[in-house]
Design brief:
By secondary structure, the protein is α/β, with parallel strands linked by helices. The protein contains twelve helices and 15 strands. The chain has a seven-stranded parallel sheet, with helices on both faces. A two-stranded parallel ribbon has the order 6-15. Helix 1 (12-21) crosses helix 9, helix 5 (84-91) packs across helix 7 (140-154) and helix 8 runs parallel beside helix 10. The two termini are 34 Å apart.
Length: 304
């Protein structure tokens, strides 16, 4: 059984991966503070608690010699923008330390790194966005992920890796704290159920690709067990919706007995160029990537 270490196990993506993968792999769970939830901790092999910027924490992880490290560490979109120095310290420096020590000790440890579609920017000049589309960095959040990608590529002769450029994730969180409700589809579902109304912060025209936590987990499971090469992979549904279209899908979902009213702001922007993230590389490992969005939304609403 492969030994998989998940860095950032208390976070939105990391916590879901711990729970999803623990049936099939020996999980090492890293988090800054001790996780006390008994259901979460059940069947987790090892726990490493501590600040990821502390070398002692990283040395404990290395000493356990996992087969794979899944790196989900990053400040969120908002906290990243306060300070480039702090964002680099939290998001980039730990990865550098891990890679250098894996190389020095000649360890056979693979890295699965969670990056973001934001490295492509937001205004596209092509309709199909493949992994070869040029980067356009517009904020610190995208910059730190881009640096981590480049660092991994610089080690490609010594270390196996997969870089996963993630689109907009959604789904009910394992730990439902305030930081997991700002993603747009999570926020819309929460408003619809709790307030019986949806109030958009824009005219609804921005375009997004939404991928469920379940799809992310299923893909990562396939990736772990596959023969893979060092590559960058778009992790996405391959379908693009405006935020208004998504709000309408939630409003008209069969969870509700009648449509939920939607309020949107007056349009202040030019029409955005339509695009689609290409997920052909993802489908190599996970051919059944397509899922029913209406069913996923319904299941999410049930849990809120």
């Amino acid at each position: 059984m492969k030994k998989v270490c998940i860095l950032g196990s208390a976070g939105y993506i990391g916590s879901f991966l711990c729970q999803f993968l623990k049936k099939d792999f020996e999980i090492i769970c890293h988090s800054r503070k001790k996780i006390t939830d008994s259901n979460f901790c059940q069947n987790i092999k090892n726990f490493v608690n501590g600040d990821i910027t502390n070398h002692q924490t990283l040395n404990k992880i290395i000493k356990l010699k996992p087969d794979i490290i899944i790196y989900t560490i990053s400040l969120n979109h908002f906290d990243s923008e306060y300070s480039l120095v702090n964002s680099t310290k939290v998001s980039v420096s730990p990865l550098l330390y891990l890679l250098e020590n894996i190389k020095k000790k000649n360890l056979n440890i693979e890295i699965i790194y969670f990056s973001t579609m934001q490295v492509y920017g937001r205004e596209y000049t092509k309709k199909i966005i493949t992994e070869t589309y040029p980067k356009k960095i517009n904020n610190i959040y995208a910059l730190t992920h881009s640096i981590c990608e480049d660092v991994l590529i610089s080690y490609e002769q010594k270390i196996k890796f997969s870089i996963l450029r993630l689109s907009n994730a959604f789904g009910f969180p394992v730990f439902p704290n305030k930081n997991v409700w700002w993603p747009v589809l999570n926020n819309i579902c929460q408003m619809a159920k709790k307030n019986q109304s949806i109030e958009l912060q824009s005219d609804g025209s921005p375009l997004r690709d939404f991928v469920s936590l379940y799809t992310i987990g299923s893909f990562v499971k396939k990736l772990i067990t596959s023969n893979k090469k060092n590559e960058i992979i778009n992790v996405c549904s391959g379908k693009t919706f405006s935020i208004l279209e998504i709000a309408r899908k939630v409003s008209n979902n069969y969870f509700f007995t009648k449509p939920i009213p939607i309020k949107k702001r007056k349009s202040t922007r030019k029409k955005l160029y339509n695009f689609k993230y290409d997920n052909l590389k993802m489908k190599k490992y996970f051919p059944t990537v397509n899922y029913n969005l209406e069913n996923e939304i319904y299941n999410f609403l049930l849990k809120i």
